[in-house]
Predict the structure.
Amino acid sequence: MTVAPQIDEARLNELLGKVVGDLGAAMSAPLMVIGDRLGLYKALAEGAPQTPEELAARTGTVERYVRPWLVNQAAHGYVDYDPAGGRYSLSPEQAMVLAHEDTPAFVVGGFEVVVGSSQATDRIAEAFRTGAGMAWGEHDPMVFRGTERFFRPGYLANLTTAWIPALDGIAAKLEAGGSVVDIGCGHGASTIIMAQAYPNARLAGFDSHAGSIEQARRRAEEAGVADRVTFEVAAATEFPGMDGGYDLVAFFDCLHDMGDPEGALRRSRETLAEGGAVMIVEPMASDRPEDNFNPVGRVFAGASALVCTPHAVATGGKGLGTIATDAQVREVAEAAGLGRFRRATETPFNRIFEARP
């Protein structure tokens, strides 16, 4: 005879509360992408408090859609509401997070990744059963765009002001006209930020995804750095070197989803200049699983299952995954001949490692 388990009503209600909150968040993700795409956040940030009719008129949208969108956003606390006037607005803090792309707090790109990667739900579910992979380039284009927009604010805030200065002697080399290669450069955000900060340096970006390289070239032209930055399609294990070697080989939030991370780092060691360094920027993760049971760990573990691990499996199978520990990254670096390894600095979202022969 099976005995029914005793149900703790308080625990059940607490869990249901969390689940309903997550359901609301999941339902809101596409609405946040829509608000960003249609300029609703920017219009709220730039104007006085607005009614749904006024916001719709200002953005060329339809009030009957804008009204529930605003209710959804206000229910989250993403938009402020004044019941006396029936008007909605964005506070300066909300505008930093939702409307202004060049602030360190901008996060809308992350929701693009959520919506884009969810298009592959059936494919990834099957991969759970079979162990098959799914390459980065097979995802919805929102994943590529969203990844750039999610990480770019952190690069703007930290890359040339904190991360590179934390590497022994590298900032001075770049200021004097050194060379940088950005592996897995995607749309080129990190490469272009470095080019703007170090006008004497020579920079190259390589990525295996041709569509991303095309976009990176357009971005370099728009930023006015195309004369000093080149972007080419190349695998991380086979990218070309240069005479004298690179002073800095950089991996921004990408080593963990490469099918052969050891091979990529071995190639990096082969192309390093004397006194050069490899910088490995990885998502924040902790050594113990339970230390990842927090909002940041939740985001990155989800990305690992949906995007990063499938790509690693599809391109070689040896990927680290997004929540790789320091020890796992160190092991790969040492196996590639980069025996001097340390965590140089960190942010709430990233760990920055320095590796040298």
About this structure: The beta strands are 80-82, 87-89, 179-183, 202-207, 229-233, 246-252, 272-283, 340-346, 350-356.
